[in-house]
Amino acid sequence: MSVPRATAAVSEQWVGGPFGDSRFKYFLIAPALFIMLSIALFPLINLLVVSFQGISIIAENKSFHGILNYQRLAGDSRMWKSLLHTVGLLLVALPIELIFGMAMALLFVDKMRGRQIFVALLVLPMVIAPIVAGATWRLMFDNQFGPINQIIGWFAGRDVTIVWLADSSFVWPAILATEVWHSTPFMFIILLAGLAGVDRSQIESAQIDGASAARIFFKIILPAIRPVLAVAILIRALDLFRIFDIIWALTRGGPGTVTETISTFTFVKAFEQFDTSFAAAVAITVVLILTAVTIYALRRIEIAR
Amino acid sequence: MTVAVRAAPGSSASLWQARRRSLKTIARYAAAVAITVIFLFPVFWIFMMAFKTPDEIFSRPPVWLPADFNLDTFKALVRDGDLGAIWTSLITAGVSTIFAMFFGTIAAYSLARFKTGGRNLAIGILSQRMIPPIVIVFPVFLAYVFLGWIDTFHGLIILYTAFNLPYVIWMMRGYIEDIPIELEHSALVDGWSRWQVLLRVVFPMARAGLFATTVFTFIFAWNDYIFALVLTRTEVVTFPVQVTSWFGQQFVFWARIGAMSMMGTLPIFFAVIVFQRYMVRGISLGAVKG
Amino acid sequence: MAHIRISSLHKYYDSVHAVRGIDLDIRDGEFTVLVGPSGCGKSTMLRAIAGLENIDSGTIEIDDEVVNNLAPGDRDVAMVFQNYALYPYMNVFDNIAFGLRARKFPAREITARVQAAAETLDIVELLKRLPRQLSGGQRQRVAIGRAIVRDARLFLFDEPLSNLDAQLREGMRVEIKQLHQRLGKTMIYVTHDQIEAMTLADRIVLLKDGSIEQEGAPLDLFERPVSRFVAGFLGSPSMNFLPAKLVENGTYLGLRFADDVTLALPAAASQRLASRVGQDVTFGVRTEHITPARDGELDDGFVDLLVTIDLTQPTGSRTYASFKLAGVAVQAELRAHDVEQPGEQIKLQIDMNRAIVIDPSTELVI
Ligand SMILES: Nc1ncnc2c1ncn2[C@@H]1O[C@H](COP(=O)(O)OP(=O)(O)OP(=O)(O)O)[C@@H](O)[C@H]1O
Ligand SMILES: [Mg+2]
Predict the structure, then answer these.
(1) Which chain A residue has the Cα nearest residue C50?
(2) Is A32 in CB contact (< 8 Å) with chain C?
(3) Which fold has domain B74-283?
(4) CA distances from residue A38 to A43, B165, B170, C9 in whole angstroms, order as listed
(5) Which secondary structure element, helix H or strand E, spans residue C194, and what is its range?
(6) How far is CA A301 from CA A31, A187, B129, C29, in A?
(7) Using CB atoms and an 8 Å cut-off, which of residues 117-156 of chain A contact chain B?
């Protein structure tokens, strides 16, 4: 160490180990930042550049096109519909997952024999690769060989041959079912943890006061798990906004463009139609929409921890 | 909520209540079993595909259980070299997880203990993870075409590493903040260097968090579809891509899809059951400690 | 052994000015206790001396060497932490040996030293155990063992006993004092427990809001506090404080309270305070200086007072009795059977020689 041992200069931090403390902390974080920046930020900047150019399958036009792509995007009804589908799915799926997850969490919050096993089994769907989940339900919904039509047939008392994934009036329920199946366990286990943290003595004293179960739920339990609820909703909302794999496995956005989401739409534009600059503009738009939501969300999560 | 009523034993009220309670217990078990069956049925269904004969797969009405558990599909996968997909997934997910864990954990230490970059850097890092994968993979695809990294192991590994780094940093930051700082102070006073403190104090203390985060990081990479779909062709085929490759225009190879799904899913099930305790914290980005 | 010199030390945590210009000299082998209310900067000072906290200005010298830029490991200090800071994944032996290993001691010497430290602290049979298999007191011993095994020149203790129960704390206090006598090392000890401070210290440094309020030998601080803060902080139960007015009272001065009761001040105090007649002051007297009046003549500087006891708190050997003086509750320390019941009247005497008078505007003793 070449640092003089006896100096009165103070604002410098002490020197420890192979690196000065002040450098040590940057040294630790540098590799990670470098990787993240080179894989996310620089390509993202490139994307921004491309979105102002005119590159597509027919033309390698790198001249500045101004906001042409963004104007095209603003008038592209398919893009707006895919955005609408995405938000619509989010708004329907999220409450359903939340209610199912809450119901399951309430069922399992009290001690019971074998609870551990039930919980362990119930969380499994969520860790299945979404693409495998999609494949699984594609099989389940198969109009001829799938068990869903068969089971409905038992109740209907006749042969049912709904073509779930090709019939535009049945395809969204099918996607919804898959999504709810895949993600309700997420809500379940987080809410279960939240409920376990609720102060039991409050509930018990309310019971002694003769409060109804509904009242206890809404006046005591719900406020107590509000932070947990917020985190769960935020994380799931961000996930749902990005939905790709399940839709891709089930329908690829079809029939036609009935189940296209913003992710599948971008994929088709970028990698099937090679409408590169336009797809870049779409991607940039998505980033802009999400960044605001995300930063807000993450601050909330940090507050909760 | 069940009400914990405690009545004196022997009184008629307690008998009635005991009866009511046992009814309630039965109802709870019935509900629990029903829900579990419903949630696991699809898993059962896809796994069974692997053991069914073509006739059983394509029968109406559907056959629920194969007559005998034949392993022809697995043999076919081995014969055709399709198991390579599992191997490829293991390499890409495994290597990227090691990188992400190492670089992520030391970065997390910097954020946790030196408050490097303040709150905003930490949040900025995590926000990167919230960007939809399609938005990330598109410019990365353009860059990889330029670099000639399409369909290479290192290309996929680097992307997985970068994509998982924010998660690792965020999670490990939380786990490191949970370590009493006095343990590190004590080691520093004792004369250990900063690196030694990391190695001898921080890593052992954060062991549980390290394992749990490793597991989840691995699962994210293992389950990825869209990155692999876009960035690979024929040389590097991960198991999710392999699964979808059997969705043909004319014919769907359900048996193979089932077998491959099973092999790609069972290890994950196992890992998650082992790390159940860390699950809530792992999936809630540390916000819920579980 | 080491002597420490700290000059104009400042430390900020963002906007919090935690240490505000501390100057302190600590002699070789001295047992110095830093004491003060929570958040006054005791731990910060200690960490700054250890090198765990970088400082914003000022110098810290150990044995005439400025150590500001030395890493904690290079300062040759040992530190004991409030939460023990034992490594849960190492057994007691390895915990104690950890610091020696950092300094690359040969294995044989490590064993010998750990053994010796364990014998000193009477924990030989615990060496194979993990920290979680130890009681709080045993953990504390191990933590001390970790510090003494290194034979550092300076020992730093940050509230080492505050996690122990009262009885254990007393025992450990004695042991730490014996340890100091045996090792003769310079020790700096942080506590917010004034009894620990009084019993252990060669010198007490009383901190308030990041500055030194008063320093000196324990009894100096106890008997001659410079401010209301010091007077109130040391002593248990706390000193009685009453608002009063300084008035002429025959030859000498007196303190007049709200209900016109006047207590005469002794000659020395009267002289000292002569220039302040007519001012509002705060009168301070410790509980043990209010005692039952003896029959016959009062000693010089004593005053007596007939009071009605409102409340008694017997502790066994003593009984704390409260009464009202000018509407303010005052505690006296009586013998066990001086009063039996609240409501009794009793004649008390106050030792005005030991009482203090405080200027309420500066809170300083005058
Ligand atoms: N790491 C930190 N970041 C910000 N402020 C801090 C930090 N550590 C201490 N402080 C602040 O500095 C002041 C002094 O803290 P310090 O820990 O030295 O107090 P203390 O005298 O040891 O108190 P206690 O008796 O409670 O341990 C307090 O106001 C505290 O809030
Ligand atoms: Mg402290």
Answers:
(1) A14
(2) no
(3) MetI-like fold (1.10.3720)
(4) 7, 12, 19, 44
(5) helix C194-200
(6) 26, 15, 14, 51
(7) 118-133, 135-140, 144-147, 150, 153
pLDDT tens by residue, B147-163? 999 999 999 999 999 99
Torsion of CA A26, A28, A32, A38, to 10 degrees: 40
User: Cβ–Cβ of A231/B287 closer than 8 Å?
Assistant: yes
CA dihedral of A166, A169, A173, A176, whole degrees rounded to 10: 70
Q: What is the pLDDT of residues B258-267, one digit of tens each?
A: 999 999 999 9
Task: Reply yes or no: is the peptide bond before residue C266 cis, omega within 30 of 0.
Answer: no
Strands (E), A52-173: 54-55, 60-61
- Whether residue A2 lies within 8 A of chain C, CB to CB, comes out as no
CATH number of the structural domain A76-304: 1.10.3720.10
Residue B271 C-alpha, separation from nearest chain C C-alpha, in angstroms: 24
C49 C-alpha to center of ligand 2: Å? 14
Render pLDDT for C217-263 as a digit per residue (tens, 0 to 9).
999 999 999 999 999 999 888 899 999 999 988 788 888 888 888 88
Of B29-38, B190-199, C337-346, least confident by mean pLDDT is C337-346
For ligand 1, residues with CB inside 6 Å are: C 13, 16, 18, 36, 38-44, 192
Residue C328 lies in a domain: yes
Could you state, in order of their start, the residue ranges of all structural domains in chain A? 76-304
> ipTM of the assembly?
0.89
Longest Cα–Cα distance of chain C, Å, equals 79
Residue identifier of the C-alpha nearest atom 24 of ligand 1: C38
pLDDT tens-digit readout, C15-28: 899 999 999 999 99
Q: The tokens of C320 are what?
A: 């704390």
